[in-house]
């Protein structure tokens, strides 16, 4: 992966295109996504972080189980040497909890990512549309932001 605008390098780690989805009014949680590339020879682990607009930061996994979306907290995320790990809306992702305000499409929100070995990286999350499926994607679903029947938070 070539480094792009918005990418952050911290030691041997490169954080590619951190982004978040816009949130509907009154939302208490939001989602963050990015790719972490480990160009080094030793593993590192993403253990936490922060977002200026939220009180909490958690790593979550999302799976489908019998047609029901299930989200569960995930432990620290290992980034093996010579590999990249992508956090996206359909799997592992960051959950920003206790939002202090809504996330608005087009803005950037400062945050941090904390790693076991590399330390703390300052990042800017670009806010895309509510139903965006990737950075620079905009709103990709026609009913984004509406209630989601069949969703279970475990």
Outline the structure in words.
With 154 residues, this protein is mainly β. It has a single domain (8-132), classed as Immunoglobulin-like (Sandwich), CATH 2.60.40.1890. Helix content is 0%, strand content 54%. The protein has strands at residues 8-10, 13-21, 29-38, 44-51, 54-65, 68-73, 77-79, 84-87, 93-99, 108-115, 119-128, 151-153. Strands 1, 2, 3, 4, 5, 6, 7, 8, 9, 10, 11 and 12 form a 12-stranded mixed sheet that branches. A hairpin with a 2-residue loop joins strand 5 (54-65) and strand 6 (68-73). It is globular. The termini are far apart. The relative contact order is 0.27.
What is the topological layout?
Blueprint lengths: L7 E3 L2 E9 L7 E10 L5 E8 L2 E12 L2 E6 L3 E3 L4 E4 L5 E7 L8 E8 L3 E10 L22 E3 L1
Parallel strand pairs: 2-11, 6-12
Antiparallel strand pairs: 1-2, 2-3, 3-8, 3-9, 4-7, 4-10, 5-6, 5-9, 10-11
Protein name: Copper chaperone PCu(A)C
Pfam families: PCuAC (PF04314)
InterPro entries: LpqE-like (IPR007410), Lxx211020-like (IPR058248), PCuAC_sf (IPR036182)
> Whole-number average pLDDT?
86
Radius of gyration: 15 Å
Element order, helices and strands?
EEEEEEEEEEEE
* Strand content bin: over 45%
Shape: globular
Largest sheet: 12 strands, mixed
* Domain module count: 1
CATH T-level topology: Immunoglobulin-like
- Distance from N terminus to C terminus (CA atoms, Å) equals 34 Å
Question: Unreliable stretches, pLDDT < 50, 5 or more residues?
Answer: 138-154
Instruction: Quickly give the structural class.
Output: mainly beta
Number of strands: 12
CATH superfamily: PCu(A)C copper chaperone
Region (Disordered): 134-154
Protein name: Copper chaperone PCu(A)C
Organism: Lichenibacterium ramalinae
InterPro entries: LpqE-like (IPR007410), Lxx211020-like (IPR058248), PCuAC_sf (IPR036182)
């Amino acid at each position: 992966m070539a480094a792009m605008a918005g990418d952050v390098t911290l030691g041997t780690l490169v954080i590619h295109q951190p982004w978040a989805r816009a949130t509907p009014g009154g939302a208490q949680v939001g989602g963050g996504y990015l790719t972490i590339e480990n160009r080094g020879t030793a593993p590192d682990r993403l253990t936490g972080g922060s977002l200026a607009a939220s009180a909490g930061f958690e790593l979550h996994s999302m799976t489908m189980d019998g047609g029901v979306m299930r989200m569960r907290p995930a432990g620290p995320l290992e980034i093996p040497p010579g590999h990249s790990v992508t956090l996206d809306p359909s799997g592992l992702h960051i959950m920003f909890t206790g939002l202090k305000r809504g996330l608005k499409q087009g803005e950037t929100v400062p945050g941090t990512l904390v790693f076991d070995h590399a330390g703390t990286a300052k990042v800017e999350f670009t806010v895309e549309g509510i139903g965006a499926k990737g950075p620079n994607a905009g709103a990709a679903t026609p009913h984004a932001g509406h209630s989601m029947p069949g969703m279970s938070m475990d």
